[in-house]
Hints:
The chain has 171 residues and is an alpha+beta fold. It has five helices and eight strands; from the N terminus they run H-E-H-H-E-E-H-E-E-E-H-E-E. The chain has helices at residues 8-25, 39-46, 48-65, 90-105, 133-150; strands spanning 29-36, 71-74, 79-85, 107-110, 113-116, 119-126, 158-159, 166-167.
Amino acid sequence: TLTGIPNRRYLQRIAERQIDLSRRNGRPFSVLHIDIDDFKMVNDRYGHKAGDQGLIFAARQARNTLRSADFIARVGGDEFIALLPDTDSDDYLQNLIGRLRTAACRTFRCDDHTLSLHISIGWASFPDDGGDLEQLIQNADRRMYQQKMGSKTLSANSIDETTQSPSHPSG
């Protein structure tokens, strides 16, 4: 796969196992819905090569930020779902979300452009926010869009190599 991480189908199998395990052991887990903000603009402005590099970068940054026990899958063009076993602390989730945002905002190069991604993240916890993966994703999705509407940010900056001055995309 392009990003080197599993897809939605594999996520479904892992989630079913995680739900069974959590029910048996009485241990919660959390779901993160991660969306790259204004990703279409990256493809439109810089081309699909830059978009592909952005997806690879985002997946790598997320994987490097998550714990080894966590699971992440790409479920759509610019959307990822992470399963976080044994997470029952809002403090931990908020800290992790902050670290994921910081990791995604690091710059990466594609041809003559230096790009930076911004992400929106929603979360839901089993069993409080849902008893199956679909409910958990819906609740995480709702929180993600509330956040996205609350803080609209630009998703890409380009640096002109000859002048070193930022060029901000409109929109």
